[in-house]
Amino acid sequence: MNVISLIPILGSAFAALAFLTAYIVAVFRGDVYPWWPYISDTGTTIPESCIFGELLTLTAVFASIAMVIRYKWVESFNHGMKLLQNLNLAALVTGLISCVGMTMVANFEETSIRAVHFPSSAATFGMGIVYNFMHTEITRRMSPKYSSTCVWIYRLIISMMGLLSFGLLYGFGVGAETKGKKWYGNDTAKKLEWNPEDPGWGLHLASAVSEWIIGLSVILFFLTFTFEFGKIKLRLVAEAVNSPPAQREANETTPLIT
């Protein structure tokens, strides 16, 4: 295992820490009901919001780095395949949009700036799922010569799990909001205290569980990059722009990451 293969592992680890640490602190402080709150609910109140925001931002940084490396890796095997080239570029743009949305989810709490938090959350999960499907298709097209058939099937299963959960998240979520407003009205902070006795609890629970499954699917998908990143070396090329052509041909190359 080289240093590059640690990048998706670290990104996934920071995401897991963000979810679990915020949940443990929020439950310990009594800020949320312990039975499957929304991920964002656990990262809304200080101090867990600070922990959640910092770790989720680190997740976005490592995820972005992994996406760029993945893009360059696929590009290195793309020999005149225009469709694969366009799909690879589209996946990179989609993934980076998801990462930007993640940073906004981390820093704009749902109870303070809903107009930013919820669209950012939808972009994070929605674009993340699209990214997963794009790279599942890329993996299929590259297998078995450049990638394992088992890997693309595994990625397809994870992507389908995320897509199904995404539909359930918003399907049950809308129903829960409709029933829940009968008791919490416009007091969005009160939603953090949602418990089995309140209207819409069952729908809320199903929606929240779906959100956690989406989070799990994203973590599992990025972990699959570890297999391919273990075969990669990055090198730094130093070139004097104004040097003569003969000198530029003799550029020094030194390992950047091995």
Overall description:
With 258 residues, the chain is mainly alpha-helical. It has 9 helices and 2 strands; from the N terminus they run ααααααααβαβ.
Summarize the structure.
With 258 residues, the protein is mainly α. The chain is 70% helix and 4% strand.
Major β-sheet, in short?
A: 2 strands, antiparallel
List the strand order in the largest sheet: 1-2
How confident is the prediction overall: mean pLDDT? 83
Structural class of the helices, strands and pairings?
A: mainly alpha
Q: Roughly what fraction of the amino acids lie in strands?
A: under 5%
Note the run of SSEs as H and E: HHHHHHHHEHE
* Percentage of residues in helical conformation: over 70%
Radius of gyration: 21 Å
Identify the overall geometry.
elongated
Total number of strands: 2
Q: How many helical stretches? A: 9
Low-confidence stretches: 251-258
What's the end-to-end separation, in Å? 10 Å
How is this fold's topology laid out?
Blueprint: H1 6-29, H2 39-42, H3 48-77, H4 82-107, H5 114-142, H6 149-184, H7 201-223, H8 225-229, E1 234-238, H9 245-248, E2 252-257
Antiparallel strand pairs: 1-2
Helix pairs in contact: 1-3, 1-7, 3-4, 4-5, 5-6, 5-7, 6-7
Label this structure with key terms:
single chain, 258 residues, mainly alpha, two-stranded antiparallel ribbon, 70% helix, disordered C terminus
